[in-house]
Amino acid sequence: MNARLLFVLGLLAAGCTRHPTPPAGPFQDDFDRAELGPNWHSHNPGAYRIIDGELDIKLAHNQPLWLARPIPRDVRIDFDCTPLDPAVDMKVEVFGDGERHESAADIARDAQYTASGYVFIFGGWHNQLSTLVRKLEHQWQYQRGVPTRRDVRGVPGRRYHWTIVRRGQHVEWDIDGQPFLQLTDPHPLAGPGHDRFGFDGWESEVRCDNLKIVALK
Asked: Distance (Å, rounded) from C-alpha 204 to C-alpha 161?
């Protein structure tokens, strides 16, 4: 093999080198910039913008904005979220695969969305119900014991502080420092394919800010 061929093969190999995925660990984002940047990706990028130092979400249609790095298995996630529409419908996905999203065909026929992780919904279904589900967004309709609340309505324009904690099989969700919903999963979603965090939504406009992800000891 001559030197020129070796040189070309070397260039091709260098161009195909895949950058390693960052290790699971702490992450913070205050969205105090103009663009989302390389830490985030979505199949519906137009639904996610930075406005006045906050993440603005509108017409997301169950196509999450995924964090492009894994999160720890046992973790605490904090962020602020403000609904701007009367429908409220604030949503995040945790321990997903970092890729799954609702297809255009399913959006068109208003299919029931199946996520890849746990879905936390506050003020969903036109501000009528909040729930914490495992993958299937409408799980509360088909299975008894799914954590839900109907006694709390979101207030447009009010900023809420969310805290999500997972230790082993137990998932806790607090809002403004008060317990909101919790779930014990005997087969917790974890490891490759279940190690990403994503902001999500349907049609309502929501602003999110001050994301902080830390590993639990």
From this structure: 18
Contacts of 189 (CB under 8 A, 6+ apart): 95, 117, 118, 134, 135
Tokens standing for residue 17: 């080198």
Query: Which residue ranges make up each domain of the chain?
Result: 25-215
Domain 25-215 indexed as CATH 2.60.40.10: no
Q: pTM for the complete prediction?
A: 0.88
Whether the CB-CB separation of 50 and 89 falls below 8 Å is answered with no
Give Dmax over CA atoms of the chain in angstroms: 75
The 10s digit of each residue's pLDDT in 108-145 is 877 788 999 999 999 999 999 999 999 999 999 999 99
